[in-house]
């Protein structure tokens, strides 16, 4: 029996290596970037390695310094191609329509990123996309440029068109000169937004894919499904998937029970409630411990790195009253929520 592995909420290393590859392509020494990313040897097998959001941000900042590029996230994000997403990338690029690719990506996006998921809703003639952070994420313009530009660059490359969104919101301060980002997206951008969102025309869903290939799609979809199964066998994903599901329920105002998540866990991992409890027990955990960890991580991050009102921070963590959050923060840190926020501001 495999020993339980620590859960990792982050970005698949094959995707994150884009940062180091860009530096190497300019004939610069990429070792400081590789060290910042925590990848070690880029020529080894990266399929089971993950890069935390903090390390990705550090790698982007180091690359920006080496390349003297104040828009390094934008520059590198534009280079995203199917190979950087592995088999899932080729499964996406061979879909018949963008609608098919979007549905496939929604279902399997945690193969490339477990730190956030993207939810899409069609409202009339507009698709509203929301990036849901499942772990505290840096409010850094390079990180969010790399993330959001990469998605648009991939979509443009797949369909061979300069797709222009209707609006983009980024949860980070604007760069000193935002014009390069405005020119790339081709639409208005709201900076320092509470969360990352995009609004695009719903007609994009019906755009044909000039790279559609039924045979390749069938093969790559099968390989992607096998990759999902192998990941669970070699690097158990129970903890990050539980954290994702819990974070979604908290943001919806609900403190989840394990039984309420049973259908989702059955569909994604094929595990019953009893099996989940046993897996957690092997790691010395109970479900309530995971809920507490997610709440603590989210609340402390928002106190330290956002200006959300304390009542809103409590609401987003599904506390019925701000006083309940106050007691929890006091238990975790020995400080009041306001003192935690003021301490972070003083250090900043």
Topology:
Elements: E1 11-12, H1 13-16, H2 18-25, H3 31-37, E2 50-51, H4 53-67, H5 72-77, H6 86-93, H7 98-108, E3 116-123, E4 126-133, H8 141-159, E5 167-169, H9 179-185, E6 188-190, E7 196-201, H10 214-234, H11 238-251, H12 258-269, H13 273-282, H14 287-305, H15 310-316, H16 322-333, H17 337-347
Give a written overview of the molecule.
Helix 11 (238-251) packs across helix 12. The protein has helices at residues 13-16, 18-25, 31-37, 53-67, 72-77, 86-93, 98-108, 141-159, 179-185, 214-234, 238-251, 258-269, 273-282, 287-305, 310-316, 322-333, 337-347; strands at 11-12, 50-51, 116-123, 126-133, 167-169, 188-190, 196-201. The protein folds into 2 domains: 11-206, H-NOX domain (Alpha-Beta Complex), CATH 3.90.1520; 238-347, Arc Repressor Mutant, subunit A, CATH 1.10.10. It has 17 helices and 7 strands. The protein has 348 residues and is α+β, with helices and mostly antiparallel strands. Helix content is 55%, strand content 9%. It is globular and about 55 Å long. A 5-stranded mixed sheet has the order 3-4-7-5-6. It has a two-stranded antiparallel ribbon with strand order 1-2.
Looking at the structure, the CATH topology of the largest domain is H-NOX domain
Helix content: 40-55%
SSE ordering: EHHHEHHHHEEHEHEEHHHHHHHH
- How many strands, which pairing sense, and closed or not: the largest β-sheet? 5 strands, mixed
The whole-angstrom Rg is 20 Å
Which structural class matches the secondary elements? Answer: alpha+beta
Count of beta strands: 7
Q: What's the overall geometry?
A: globular
**Percent in strands:** 5-15%
Q: Write down the overall mean pLDDT.
A: 85
- What is the CA-CA span between the terminal residues? 46 Å
Give the strand order, joined by hyphens, for the main sheet. Answer: 3-4-7-5-6
């Amino acid at each position: 029996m495999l020993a339980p592995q620590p859960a990792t909420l982050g970005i698949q290393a094959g995707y994150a290596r884009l940062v180091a590859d860009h530096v190497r392509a300019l004939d610069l020494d990429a070792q400081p970037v590789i060290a910042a990313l925590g990848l070690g040897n880029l020529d080894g097998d990266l399929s089971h390695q993950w890069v935390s959001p903090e390390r990705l941000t550090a790698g982007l900042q180091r690359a920006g310094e080496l390349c003297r590029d104040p828009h390094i996230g934008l520059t590198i994000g534009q280079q995203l191609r199917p190979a950087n997403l592995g088999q899932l990338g080729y499964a996406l690029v061979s879909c018949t329509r963008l609608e098919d690719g979007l549905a496939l990506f929604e279902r399997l996006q945690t193969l490339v990123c477990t730190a956030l998921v993207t939810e899409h809703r069609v409202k009339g003639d507009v698709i509203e996309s929301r990036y849901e952070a499942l772990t505290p994420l840096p409010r850094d313009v390079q990180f969010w440029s790399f993330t959001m530009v990469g998605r648009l660059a991939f979509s443009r490359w797949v369909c061979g068109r300069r797709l222009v969104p209707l609006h983009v919101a980024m949860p980070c301060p604007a760069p000193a000169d935002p014009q390069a980002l405005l020119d790339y997206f081709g639409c208005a951008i709201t900076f320092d937004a509470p969360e990352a969102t995009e609004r695009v025309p719903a007609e994009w869903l019906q755009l044909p894919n000039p790279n559609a290939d039924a045979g390749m799609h069938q093969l790559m979809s099968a390989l992607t499904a096998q990759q999902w199964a192998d990941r669970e066998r070699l690097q158990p994903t129970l903890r990050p998937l539980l954290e994702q599901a819990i974070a979604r329920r908290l943001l919806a105002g609900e403190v989840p029970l394990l039984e309420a998540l049973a259908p989702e866990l059955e569909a994604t991992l094929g595990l019953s409630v009893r099996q989940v409890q046993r897996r957690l027990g092997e790691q010395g955990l109970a479900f309530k411990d995971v809920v507490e960890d997610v709440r603590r991580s989210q609340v402390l991050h928002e106190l330290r790195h956002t200006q959300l009102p304390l009542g809103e921070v409590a609401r987003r963590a599904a506390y019925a009253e701000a006083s309940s959050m106050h007691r929890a923060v006091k238990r975790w840190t020995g400080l009041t929520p306001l003192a935690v926020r003021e301490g972070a501001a003083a250090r900043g």
